[in-house]
Design a protein that fits this description.
274 residues, mainly alpha, 9 helices, flat
Length: 274
């Protein structure tokens, strides 16, 4: 009578659990150095391109302020208050544009460094949010430029028309203001990506997000009050509406993440996840 077969002590891994190539610690350091050098080269090239196009971008940057000034029957010219003010603005804007131009390349280098140490399903999850995160960041900038800035600047310029004091707008100070607003909104628009990551690691679920919606509304209201660049109600409501919409999108994203994880668990015979 044949002896019963013993279980394989090293069962084959499922394809979705197979990790990428293994590297030694020294190989990781060499790869990290390579990725850092490639990223810095990409940023350098992007900054050169940014410096070349930054004078043309200034025309678009000043348009919201010019529109606000014209709406209140004021001179729509902006000024620089030091001899090197305008040149400094071109250089600063070019550097920021260079980082934006190089960001896809930098993200690709980060991906090339971390991907070999991830399982297949983890690589799919990480790759799935890189492009949406870039899109949401740019959407936040567009939302700030086309919606928030006109409302905010109209309120600020309108406040200066009620007394004897008239605005003399410095282009450098104006640039600092809109930089904070646009980058801040770009970061705020990453909320669905944050919820996506938390859902992947089972920290939040759609049920949890819906159950705590009223607390989320309270946090959104406080955040809008502090994050809005002006104290007027219109700007606050715009911020609140955007944050609520992003939260709802996050719930939908979390639903699909959890549903996919449960389907994978059922297909692998592990039963549905919590």
């Amino acid at each position: 009578m044949a002896a019963p077969a013993l279980p394989d002590p090293n069962p084959p891994q499922r394809p979705e659990e197979e990790a990428g190539g293994r590297m030694s610690f020294f190989e990781h350091l060499v790869d990290l150095r390579k990725r850092l050098v490639n990223s810095l080269l990409g940023i350098g090239i992007g900054m050169v391109a940014g410096l070349a196009v930054s004078p043309y971008f200034i025309d678009y940057i000043v348009k919201p302020m010019q529109a606000a000034l014209r709406a209140h029957q004021m001179d729509d010219k902006l000024y620089y208050t030091s001899p090197a003010g305008y040149v400094g603005l071109i250089i600063t804007l070019g550097l920021y544009l260079g980082i934006v131009i190089a960001m896809p390349w930098v993200l690709y280098q980060i991906w090339q460094f971390v991907a070999p140490g991830l399982y297949k399903h983890e690589r799919s999850a990480v790759a799935g949010f890189i492009i949406p995160s870039m899109f949401l960041f740019l959407a936040g900038i567009a939302f700030g430029y086309f919606i928030v800035l006109p409302t905010m600047l109209g309120f600020l310029i309108g406040m200066g028309t009620t007394g004897p004091v008239k605005p003399l707008i410095s282009i450098n100070e104006y640039f600092d203001l809109i930089l904070i607003v646009l980058i801040g909104l770009g970061i705020i628009f990453e909320l669905p990506v944050v919820i996506f990551i938390l859902s992947v690691f089972n920290i939040v679920t759609p049920k949890f997000l819906i159950k705590n919606f009223r607390y989320a509304m309270l946090i959104i209201t406080v955040l809008a009050a502090f994050a809005a660049p002006t104290p007027d109600a219109t700007t606050m409501l715009i911020f609140m509406a955007a944050l609520v919409l992003l939260y709802v999108i996050g719930i939908i994203v979390s639903y699909f993440v959890v549903r996919k994880k449960r389907a994978r668990a059922v297909a692998s015979g592990e039963g549905p996840t919590a």
